[in-house]
């Protein structure tokens, strides 16, 4: 075993302001089970796969606008050991029944709880949004009240940043903050009303004050219990050395995928290595300022550290990549995006992940790092089979590179049963450049229609060099409907998936007619 | 007429109070069954061994390997049973089966020091199976003649003559899916044995008395040796009416055998693969209309998919048959009902209890027939609404039918429906790829258990010497706000401030022989029982107070903690209580209530099984995307009759929550089983939150207006109120019908659309794709390889020769006596 990792056992987590010692915690014990075993039973297990949010708690994480942000995460997915040295707040820590937190107060008096089982989770997700820096009434100015809307686009899901009018309160509350919480009783209306009634934190609010100082740094951690190990090395070099020694190591960042494997399928990896807080994996640069000169990092590209969460990337990009801005609100839920990293989504290599079709359309590449060095792999070559990739066992995804400039006409279409927090039946990313009415270039990424994410090469060829007209698009749509090898399952039939491919291109064209100035 | 419904001045009932546990909910302080584990020492954890076959004989069971797993304490098998090997009341649900009847059936249970040990122990248990042929779909069961329980027949009027004289006759076939309860709290039980061998089971159960009964017979002990308590449930929705018993029995058996507390909590996968769900149904129907659009005859056969055991399938079927009329008067009706036996979980109660499954048949047929009859669906529905002189097909007068009309008119008004329909027409005319539609549907839902004996309840009310009040009743709290209402009833009845009254957890040793908290009847039954107990105490206190005030006891009033005559001096409540104690007056009482005026002949399917009907009307507007079939629910307006509300905030919450849950069943929640012949045949294919999608914020109506019908006093119910738990669920038919109409708007006018259930985006896409691919549709894209849901294998009667235009999307026009009215065709 590598000796570069400090021999430091897990110690304690600060929960609701008190240090709670890690007694008897096992490598695969979830934060949720650990909290409940300590008598903090407010957080509940509703699904054990990060879908229902009943387990939501707040964690002090590095902020973008403030030093610390109270970040809501699914406690059912995180290994407790990953919280070593960190700060956690649960519903019990926000207030008590005799001294309710403002979020708790609004939910309680407005009928926001019925059976109450999901409620502590809603409270935590709502509290995170309550404390979000920049949540102000003015941020809702871009919206109009629902009653004033005269027309709804067929593509509301794709509105930039999910900024759909009825999803933002007059107090700036973004309803997407609650997209990972399910309630089976209320029908949600009173919960929405509670969220939209919230004011801002009082001047003496301790949790608000906490955001101005940094969160606890990541603690190098080693936990060895019953033949299984959890390690959080201090730096990238240690991890790469470790991977060279132990190709069986299970890398974990947000644990939104591994947590499901642990809980639902009983997977018990012998060695889990946490990488989510490594600074080397959390670098971000956008275009012209980039001068590091490291391999693969040129001037005209966006460089995204693999361990940045989807929420962080969304904030860092701030709408500058419209295709990704359309994708983020449709990627699982805020709770998942707060934990899930972009590297993790590519590392699991699921054919129904949401970032691959988008990044394929953006012509992204990956920087793979190992103790042998680094190499750059185009994403289009990366996927080799069902959940298989070019990545060697000793390699780690370090950076995602997106070339600049971006195509002017882009879109991300996701077909799913439910608009928020669902898994794609089909996902399509588009990057199309039309010059003088002719398609100059077209890149189309597909998910959900084959064993891997893939580029729709035949469709791209059917578009490129052709006039951007309905005739071209209809012919190309027929080609797109034949791409991939979709199958029947509980999410959708194969015939629907194929139909959705073809329809997607027609929809893309219909939505971009005005932008391109082409008459119908 | 009883005084049950009379409401005093300054009543606590009628105030819009939040849930009595709201402050505990929001802080995480509220305790649920599994939260008690950390407060209990030396708890063992249970894990099931589940069948990997839909149907198989168990030829060998070797539990020894489990004992080799560190931490495994005990494996529970049929050999351990001191009592009866039975988890139900129909004696067809062995707790430890020797034949696996469905994929996921628990064969035996492993107890471990930790959940992980129990899980690994269960994995080590060796079971040998001999796979047997299985029936997974209701159609397979019908083909194999596999039925269970008693089939029923309901008939009124002269059906055949009515069909012979009907101007238009249609027939169709429709199969629709069930629904997973997905209460956020999965099934849970925690059992302890005390020093005298008494069993105490904390259970997440809607029916503590029956849980007690099953635990007792499994253990072979009398009921008095078993106490069941339910603090609260994290949702029930009917799923915890019958299903908790076996799980509680396993925990109790384990506790008895090991002497240690045993905790059984299903994880979500276990819950979804083991516990029963809403019944899916198959239906075949024939409907006759006159030229004015009146539904004059209906003949239907309903086949409920009951799963592997009978459970509550018989009363569910009876309620379905009794609700096939929904809010519509149909003078000639014949309904046959039967229960298929399939190799699936034992389907059970679910909010609405068959009512939705009956109503969907008539709402579906009205939605499909309206364009063929040349009527706007809204107009067709309205002209068929019950009037106050009508009776149902089973012979019950439809009292207060005028409330249906009142709800309808008020929804038109508050929903600004006519103006919006015009706007929708304009919108649709100018949008090629997006269509909107608005639909209105009524609900008439009968309140009372179909089984008359269940319509009784008990309560226990204590007044302590200091004037504080503790109430106990037989109902359970699952989020519906029953306890809030019961506190309001007690405070009103005793004339004390709400803060004086406390409610103790539901326990079988406080109130015995209770009915399930089900059938929306919790407040009606338990409220009346509490009121009865309170009135006994109040009458005794009136004697005491009358003596002190020097007035007749009849003139004593109890209001807001003050005890007084019609005028003059006033005493404090606590002083009267104190005096009563010293006069040796009994300060506690047991209350009882039985619903009067019910009679029902289940064999004839005739009588008056319901105390009253709950009414409501909803208008739903949707927008459908023609590229994908995805949709949004733009606006919903509801007027619903809850009588004089006991607790308006609670009631509005029930209406909204029920509506969204109904919309979930009808649109989004896609319960799938592996119907293939592959190795996973019979497995629930959607057995997790990631694959079985509940409504989330994105399914909530963007604008959601709910009003309670005013001046809705209900004679003969507690403080003039009505039940509210189930009826609003069925208001969600408005969403499904709006989706049907929006899909039709992609085609030529008069298009009849067959829409699958649930109406997922895929189902809506195929529906709209068929509509726009209609021969009469011009210049629109799309190929018509759609997947019709309610396919009819056209055995059209002889007289229909050449009526090609009579068939549209799986609906048959049959015996047509007048020309088909299809504008645009």
UniProtKB/TrEMBL annotation, chain A:
Residue ranges of region Disordered? 135-163
Keyword hit for Metal-binding: yes
- Outline the extent of the 2Fe-2S ferredoxin-type domain: 1-94
Note the PROSITE patterns from the entry: 2FE2S_FER_1, 2FE2S_FER_2, FAD_PCMH
| Example GO molecular function | oxidoreductase activity
What residue ranges carry the coiled-coil annotation? none
What name goes with this protein? Xanthine dehydrogenase small subunit
User: What does the organism's lineage look like at the top?
Assistant: Bacteria, Bacillati, Actinomycetota, Actinomycetes, Propionibacteriales
Automatic annotation (TrEMBL), chain B:
What family is reported? Belongs to the xanthine dehydrogenase family.
For this chain, one GO molecular function annotation is: iron ion binding
| Record domain Aldehyde oxidase/xanthine dehydrogenase a/b hammerhead: where | 27-133
What the entry lists under Gene3D superfamilies is as follows:
Aldehyde oxidase/xanthine dehydrogenase, a/b hammerhead (3.90.1170.50), Aldehyde oxidase/xanthine dehydrogenase, molybdopterin binding domain (3.30.365.10)
| Name of the protein in question | Xanthine dehydrogenase molybdenum binding subunit apoprotein
UniProt source species: Kribbella caucasensis
Record's Pfam families? Ald_Xan_dh_C, MoCoBD_1, MoCoBD_2
Biased composition range(s): Basic and acidic residues: 804-816
Q: Which SUPFAM superfamilies match?
A: CO dehydrogenase molybdoprotein N-domain-like (SSF54665), Molybdenum cofactor-binding domain (SSF56003)
Record region (Disordered): 777-825
